[in-house]
Amino acid sequence: MKILRSIALGLGYPLALVLILGSVAIIARLVQVVFFYSPPALEHYEQKLSYLESLPKVDPKTVPNFIVILFDDLGWGDLSIQGNALIRTPRIDQVASEGLRMNHFYSSSPVCTPSRMGLLSGRYPGRRDIRVVYFPDESAVGIGRRFLGQENQLARDEIMIPEALRAAGYSTGMIGKWHLGGRPGHRPTDFGFDSWYGVLWSNDMWPLHLFRNDEIEREDARGFNFTGERDEERPLGAGGIDQTHLTQDYTHEAIDFLERNTDRPFFLYLSHNFPHVPHYASPEHAGESAGGLYGDVVEDLDRSTGAVLDALERLNLDENTLVIITSDNGADYLGSPGGLRGRKTQVYEGGQRVPMIVRWPGRIPENIQSDAMGMNIDLFPTLLGLAGLPMPEDRAIDGRDLTQVMTANAASPHDHLFYFSIWAPEPEAVRDHRYKYLLNTNDVGRNRPHLSRLDVDIEAHDLRRKHPEVAEELSQALQAKRKEIRDNPRGWH
Question: Does residue 179 carry a catalytic annotation?
Answer without folding.
Answer: yes
